[in-house]
Structures are given as structure tokens and as C-alpha cells.
């Protein structure tokens, strides 16, 4: 049986970008804008991993990004990690065989990126990993499996921090490493002023600046475990009582489903569960909250850039720079620790500097032009 691999002569001058999740769309937006600035038309392939309007399409509309050239269909019918990854891999491979890009960028650690990386590698296309070198060293996390695998099969590794570079060198990766900074810095700085003027989310929710907490929880190791989910929800209830402060909780579909299946509900009316919101609304919520509690890696970065104290509801982080500079506290699901760190955060001023650089999208665009002659 003949297995197709693309030759160098078959590859075109197209550069592909694979997205599929809210964080991925946001992180790629500065690169897409920098490409367009240089008259490079990006080939955007959407895997459909986040397939609801609130977690997906609204971000393209708000960020004024080109509509994806291709989308993997029927993702909503997949459920298991292997099934989801395989479905995306097949869909991405079909697009790559049709378009034959010279290189494709995947960004981060979601199943979207693993599927894309495998399809790209198997066809002999140049694989570029944005956000390379992050490590939580927690092997329970599917994201940790994904990021390690992608790093080891990439041709170009775009590392956001010097620690990420060191992780890649320690792991002995074979690809070419570049220290570029973090595109989330560009995304936040490009959009925070727009968010402040356009979003009316504070008025809609009837909350005041610096007078509420923001909370997001969605990680599998948290919400798929009833004991941990219950502990986190109990801590949130206690926060609302002790500090007599509204807690805004945009609820991820996965979390919503688990709360219902576990029979868990919030009793305190200060806790406001709301549907997922668009990027500008979320950026305004984040930039104006007193403290954010989250298990999201991307929100740890965004809060750090915006000067908002972050309480991470995990036992570890792949963003250690946020902890080192004092922007982030790792608390797990221990209620006493959560209460202690929130109280501390409410009574201090942010004094750290953005560790992620600037003009990162343009830096990456220059690297792509140099490495692949586009």
C-alpha cells in the first residue's frame, strides 16, 4: 500500500495556521494580522474543537479576522480524546493534501494542535509550534502529553520565555528553537482599549469596576472529578459569603454539564453564572475585576499582562514566570488556601512587569519569511 508524503517540489508558498479553540484564535490573531500586513494570505484551518458560537465564531467576528479557509465538519459528534483527535487528523490531512502549504503553525497544547501536528509531520510539511517548551510536569494532564509530543516532532519551535527554551534544550528536541515572546501580549495590548469602549458587560451584569471576582473552571482534572468540583464550588460559595462580593462565573459547557450530572448548584445569589462571552466582553471583565480565579493557562497570562492578581485552581502551572514575578498563586482546590490567597490579593497592588515582550506577531512573521522564503 502506497502512503502519500508530499515532496518539497509539491509544496506551495502557502503558510497554514491551525485553530480550533478560543485561546488558539486569540493567540494567533497577532500573527494573522502581521501576515496580512506583509501581504501574506494565511491558510486558516479550523478543526471545530470549540464549535459553539460563544466559544468560537464570535471571536473571529470581534477580532476582525478572516473567516477560516477550511473547517473540519461534525466535530460535535465526537466525545473521547482519541476519537476527537483522529477525526480532526483525518479532516486536516485532507485539507493539507489539497492545499500543500510549505509550512503550518500549530499553537499550544489542545487536541487540535496534536491532530494538526501529526497530520503535518506525516505528510512531510514543515511543522512550526507556537508556545513551544511549556511544561507543567503533571502527567495527568492531556495537555502535557500533547505539548511534549508536538515539541519533539516540530521543525521550528517558537518559545515564549527563556525557561521554555531551557525546557526544550533539556528535552533534547531536534527542531530549531527561537525565543520570540508570547503573542497573547500583543493580543491583549491590541484589544484592551477596544474592549473598554465597546463592551457593555459591566452594565449588563450591574457590577462596578474592581468590585467583583471573576472565576473560570474547565480543566478535565478539575471538573471531571466530583470531589474536586465540589471542593472548588464550596470555596466559591465561601468567598461570596466572607467577602460579600459578586463572583462572575462564565461557565464552560463542559463545566455546566458536570455540575448538572453531579447535582451541584450554587445557593448564594452573589454568584452569577453566565454563558460564555465574547473576547471583548471577557477582556473587559478580566481587566476590571479585583481578582481572577481560574484553571486556564491563557487567563493566567492575560491577567499577568493586565496587572490583575490571579489565583490558579490547580496544583501546578506551565506558566511559572507568572508565579516568579508575583502575579499568580497556585492553590489547588484547598478551600483554606483559596480564601487566604484571595484575601491577600484583595489587599495588595500589582507591581510586576509584563514578562512576555511586544511585537511578537511581527517577530514570528519575520522568522517565517526567513526560514521558508515567503
UniProtKB/TrEMBL annotation:
Domain UDP-N-acetylglucosamine 2-epimerase: 38-368
Enzyme class: isomerase
GO MF terms held by the record: UDP-N-acetylglucosamine 2-epimerase activity
Its EC number(s): 5.1.3.14
Pfam family, one: Epimerase_2
Keywords carried by this UniProt record: Isomerase
Keyword Isomerase: yes
Keyword S-adenosyl-L-methionine: no
Alphabetized Gene3D superfamilies for the sequence: Glycogen Phosphorylase B
InterPro entries membership: UDP_GlcNAc_Epimerase_2_dom (IPR003331), WecB-like (IPR029767)
CDD domains, sorted: GTB_UDP-GlcNAc_2-Epimerase
Protein name: UDP-N-acetylglucosamine 2-epimerase
Originating species: Nitrososphaera gargensis (strain Ga9.2)
